[in-house]
Amino acid sequence: MRALLLLMLTMTGQALAEPVDIASESVNVDHEHSRAEFAGAVALTQGEFTLHCDRLHAWYVKGDLDHAEAFGHVTFHRRDINGASKRASYLKQQGVLILFDEAMVTSPEGTVRGEKITHNIESERTVVDKTPDGRVHVTIDADESKALPR
After folding, report:
1. 38-89-85 Cα angle (round to 5)
2. Could you say which residues of the chain have pLDDT below 50?
3. What's residue 130's pLDDT?
4. Strand intervals (E) in 108-148
């Protein structure tokens, strides 16, 4: 039974069209609390979306990934959008990635930096909270046809 649950944990994504795949150097599964901790070169992939980090805690509901917390050297990529931070939360059902601590998102239009960046993966809408200096930093590409906002 435990082997079947472990298999289900790695074959998540039935609630959405695209499955979620998580690869790492090690995994520790807490079956009682439907939680798994992935450590070492973690890579989470769902369709065109990828998330890399040092450590990932994932919570499951009925074998499907519900949400995850990423720690250490967090990066993500989807199409032409890239991001980085020290910590992140991924809320699968809402399709939201929240970057914390020295957060940055880049796209062809430019770069945004803040202490917290909330990115909706499907709508590609991003909200940026100010950095410790009390500011939000935006660099806009010199090509004005690509300038923010869309």
Report:
1. 90
2. 1-16, 147-150
3. 86
4. 110-120, 125-129, 137-140
pLDDT reported for residue 136: 86
Our CA dihedral for 23, 28, 32, 33, rounded to 10 degrees, sits at -70
Q: Which of 105, 110, 103, 106 is nearest to 148 (CA)?
A: 110
What does the domain layout of the chain look like in residue ranges?
2-146
Amino acid at 89: S
* Number of Cβ within a 10 Å radius of residue 133: 8
User: Which residues fall within 8 angstroms of residue 87, CB to CB, at 6 or more apart?
Assistant: 69, 70, 71, 72, 74, 99, 100, 101
Helix (H) or strand (E) holding 135: none
How many CB atoms are located within 10 Å of the residue 145 CB? 6
Q: Which CATH number fits domain 2-146: 1.10.630.10, 2.60.450.10, 2.40.37.10, 3.40.50.1860?
A: 2.60.450.10
* Contact (Cβ atoms closer than 8 angstroms) between residue 59 and residue 34: yes
